[in-house]
Amino acid sequence: MTLNPQVAQMLAAMAEAPPIDFENSTAQQVRAAYDAMIFPGEPIAMARVEDVAIPLAGRSLAARLYIPEGAGEAPPLTLFFHGGGWVLGNLDTHDASCRALARASGVALLALDYRLAPEHRYPAAADDCHDALCWVVENGTQLGIDPSRLAVAGDSAGGNLAAVTALQVRDRGGPALRHQLLIYPVTARDFTTPSYVANGGGEYFLSKASMRWFWDHYAGGIEDAPLADILGTPDLSGLAPATVITAEYDPLRDEGDRYAVRLAEQGVAVDAACAPGMIHGFFSMFQMVPAALEWIERGGANLRAALSD
Asked: In this structure, which of 111, 177, 236, 302 has its CB flanked by the most CB atoms within 10 Å?
């Protein structure tokens, strides 16, 4: 399919701004540019939004709880991990997409502000996500949610962290998950796939150069990083059912699609689809790309079904 017209119009507008020079910029400089890219629009109303501090061993993490209208008493919870290559992003950059996903799913959503690289390199982010999930189970009453009905979700590097969290809880004996929503996830440190070759030049927002920069900041110099480079995980059986959504014009398309295939091959129930005409990051662009909403609704509906009584 050709590029979605709404996406093409947005890319044309973005092209008028100077591109981010990853090779010659610090993490702090790139974060400032990324934070400024928050898309305009009125916030989607929630029944309640609350900032939460999660005390963990040796650190405290910020989080934001979203309770959508009609969620009821003690709703199930999706723990959400934002994208940004393990280096960028925070609670504010993904506030709009978290609200949209909470509304679409009808369940509570807790967004986690995990530690970022390069200040906190691999596997700090993965540890934060696993430990935060354990904290949620122990403090469900305090949050007002049902800790027996849990899912994880994330986009890009956050999709990687959601998948990694599902692997960790399986291997460590809990907490149990009902679903994992993986939105154009990072799954492999491989820049030679056909989707990288076709889409990695930077004309479709995400580039091969920026992904190399992200990987270098998070796990550079670490040859074996099983809590990041997950496509080669030998055993994917016994994981929570998954929704895997990729984008046609995304360098990460092939690794996300392949991870979905490998999950299905090992007996995991998977709803996998590639969004035609879309680019990396389109979930967060729904104010400018309304066609993205159908994919947010698809992910939300799967969460709703998985977390229902």
From this structure: 111
Indicate which residues carry an active-site annotation: 156, 250, 280
CATH assignment at residue 201? 3.40.50.1820
What letters, b where the CB count within 10 A reaches 16 and e where it falls short, cover 15-42? Answer: eeeeebebeeeebeebbebbeeeeeeee
Task: Report how many domains make up the chain.
Answer: 1
Span between the terminal Cα atoms of the chain, in Å: 39
Give the model confidence (pLDDT) of 101-154 as tens digits: 999 999 999 999 999 999 999 999 999 999 999 999 999 999 999 999 999 999
Cα atoms in the Cβ-side hemisphere of radius 13 Å centred on 227: 19
**pLDDT tens profile 58-112:** 999 999 999 999 999 999 999 999 999 999 999 999 999 999 999 999 999 999 9
The per-residue b/e assignment along 166-199, b for 16 or more CB within 10 angstroms, e otherwise, is bbbbbeeeebebbbbbbbbbbbbbeeebebbeeb
